[in-house]
């Protein structure tokens, strides 16, 4: 009932639109006529009569008014359930394929694709009058005469609108006289009507079909072949087809109608139309979902683009900040280099002063040794031995002081180098980015560190040389001590003379190679004692 209601509404819409001359959406009551009893074809014919003259000119078309009416009904059947009514390209192709098949022609897909492409550029659909003009102009039925086109339209009309599933001549056995008579049978969804001829003017009866009916094949009898029987609840009908192929086609078509009645389904064409619409709706829903996804993806892409722009701005700000930090770091590095250069110059001056003092001390030592040699000449072997002992002790004391100074200087240098190294490590550990930028600075400091290490190695060699000299002096002292054991009495006699040649303090302040000493005589004695203990411990360990 819902499908019939939609078809009624479509016909009414055409009539209402034709009567609504001023397009106000209202029609006067005098223009509308209501009848109690009418069938759908008569109703459609009334609506057609009201609207076709105002919308189409039939003079230049290849089809008659009746054929145009049938195309109009087919349009109402295949059009979409929205207003204003239009038929889409898929339904146009479905209708034209059926029309070409009914006319016995060959479907030209390339021609329709060209027409579809042209139609998609404009509106992608047709109105009822445009469809009638398309069929009437014979665009897709070239080479067909008007009678063939009219017969094709009628066949499609009967199949789609009148729900004629099959029609044709067959022999029917009578119920009273039992004679066989040729009849024109028309199979519908719920009935099988038979007429005297195919013009459908003289109807002889109906075979009402329901879910309890059945159709069976019969063996040949009474000189009739290709027999089958349609069994209904009240009576049965024996029918003879012209050949076995048509017999099988009729049996299959009747069985299809009975099966649809049992399942409560509409006619095959109406069901196919519903399936096509459901498929289009599903495709439209999928298309809408796809468009929504594309929209969401576009929004996400725009958000990502904005985030990327924000990150780019932050990166530019970070680069600017890093540039400022780099300028500050370079300025700090320049200040450190200037300070380090000043310290190196100061250290060079101090070193020159120490070298001058060492030269002076060496000159003094040479003079002192010269006096000692003169005394050795005076006191023969004993005096030589005593002088050697005293000189050895003096050299030992000097070497101890020198070694102590070297150790102190080495410790100070090591502390300074460790401080530079710690500063370098702190500068390197600030950030990974600054590590790369400070690599050149680190290399420069490493060169300075290597120079300082070379300096330290030089001091270390000097210390080792002093130790070797100290060992030599110690050996001489031991030899001198052994020599002086037998001369104790002579030493006592010449004690006054020995005192005269003992070195004395020149002043309260001791001097080193780098300037005045930083410790007193008491501290020097403590250092000598500690050094002697370490030396004895190392010798015992060896």
TrEMBL record:
PROSITE patterns per the UniProt record, alphabetical: PH_DOMAIN
Primary site of residence: membrane
Pfam short name (any one): EF-hand_SWAP70_N
Gene3D superfamilies, alphabetized: Pleckstrin-homology domain (PH domain)/Phosphotyrosine-binding domain (PTB) (2.30.29.30)
Keyword Phosphoprotein (UniProt): yes
Residue ranges that the Swiss-Prot or TrEMBL entry lists as coiled coil: 280-490
UniProt subcellular location: Cell membrane; Cell projection, Lamellipodium; Cytoplasm; Nucleus
GO CC field: cytoplasm; lamellipodium; nucleus; plasma membrane
Key words, A-Z: Cell membrane, Cell projection, Coiled coil, Cytoplasm, DNA-binding, Membrane, Nucleus, Phosphoprotein
Superkingdom assignment: Eukaryota
InterPro entries: EF-hand_SWAP70_N, PH-like_dom_sf, PH_domain, PH_SWAP70
Positions of the PH domain: 163-259
Residues of the signal peptide: none
Molecular-function annotations in GO: DNA binding
Complexes and interactors: The SWAP complex consists of NPM1, NCL, PARP1 and SWAP70.
Cited function: Phosphatidylinositol 3,4,5-trisphosphate-dependent guanine nucleotide exchange factor (GEF) which, independently of RAS, transduces signals from tyrosine kinase receptors to RAC. It also mediates signaling of membrane ruffling. Regulates the actin cytoskeleton as an effector or adapter protein in response to agonist stimulated phosphatidylinositol (3,4)-bisphosphate production and cell protrusion.
Protein's recorded name: Switch-associated protein 70
Originating species: Salmo trutta (Brown trout)
């Amino acid at each position: 009932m819902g499908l019939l209601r939609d078809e009624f509404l479509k016909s009414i819409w055409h009539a209402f639109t034709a009567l609504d001359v001023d397009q106000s959406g209202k029609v006067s009551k005098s223009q509308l006529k209501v009848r109690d009893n009418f069938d759908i074809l008569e109703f459609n014919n009334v609506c057609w009569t009201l609207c076709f003259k105002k919308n189409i000119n039939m003079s230049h078309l290849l089809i008659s008014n009746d054929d145009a009416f049938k195309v109009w009904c087919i349009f109402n059947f295949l059009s979409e359930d929205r207003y204003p009514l239009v038929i889409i390209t898929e339904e146009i192709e479905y209708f034209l394929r059926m029309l070409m098949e009914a006319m016995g022609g060959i479907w030209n897909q390339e021609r329709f694709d060209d027409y579809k492409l042209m139609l998609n550029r404009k509106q992608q659909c047709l109105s009822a009058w445009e469809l009638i003009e398309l069929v009437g102009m014979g665009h897709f039925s070239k080479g067909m005469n008007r009678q063939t086109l009219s017969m094709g339209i009628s066949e499609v009309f009967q199949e789609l609108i009148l729900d004629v599933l099959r029609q044709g001549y067959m022999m029917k056995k009578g119920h009273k006289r039992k004679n066989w008579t040729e009849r024109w049978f028309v199979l519908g969804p719920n009935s099988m009507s038979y007429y005297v001829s195919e013009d459908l003017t003289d109807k002889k009866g109906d075979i009402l079909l329901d879910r309890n009916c059945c159709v069976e094949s019969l063996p040949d009898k009474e000189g009739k072949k290709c027999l089958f029987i349609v069994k209904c609840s009240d009576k049965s009908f024996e029918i003879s087809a012209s050949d076995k192929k048509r017999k099988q086609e009729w049996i299959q078509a009747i069985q299809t109608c009975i099966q649809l009645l049992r399942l409560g389904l509409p006619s095959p064409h109406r069901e196919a139309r519903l399936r096509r619409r459901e498929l289009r709706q599903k495709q439209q829903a999928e298309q809408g979902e796809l468009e929504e996804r594309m929209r969401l993806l576009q929004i996400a892409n725009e958000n990502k683009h904005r985030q990327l722009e924000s990150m780019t701005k932050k990166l530019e700000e970070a680069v600017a900040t890093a540039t400022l930090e780099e300028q500050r770091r370079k300025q700090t590095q320049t200040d450190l280099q200037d300070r380090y250069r000043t310290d190196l110059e100061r250290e060079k001056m101090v070193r020159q002063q120490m070298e001058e003092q060492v030269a002076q001390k060496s000159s003094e030592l040479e003079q002192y040794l010269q006096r000692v040699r003169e005394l050795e000449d005076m006191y023969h072997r004993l005096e030589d031995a005593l002088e050697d002992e005293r000189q050895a002790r003096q050299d030992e004391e000097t070497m101890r002081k020198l070694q102590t100074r070297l150790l102190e200087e080495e410790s100070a240098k090591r502390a300074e180098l460790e401080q530079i190294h710690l500063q370098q490590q702190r500068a390197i550990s600030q950030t990974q980015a600054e590590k790369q930028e400070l690599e050149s600075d680190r290399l420069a400091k490493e060169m300075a560190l290597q120079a300082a290490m070379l300096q330290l190695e030089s001091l270390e060699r000097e210390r080792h040389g002093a130790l070797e000299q100290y060992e030599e002096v110690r050996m001489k002292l031991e030899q001198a001590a052994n020599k002086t054991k037998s001369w104790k009495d002579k030493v006592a006699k010449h004690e006054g003379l020995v005192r005269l040649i003992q070195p004395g303090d020149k002043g309260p302040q001791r001097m080193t190679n780098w300037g005045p000493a930083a410790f007193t005589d008491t501290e020097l004695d403590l250092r000598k004692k500690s050094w002697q203990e370490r030396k004895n411990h190392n010798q015992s360990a060896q």
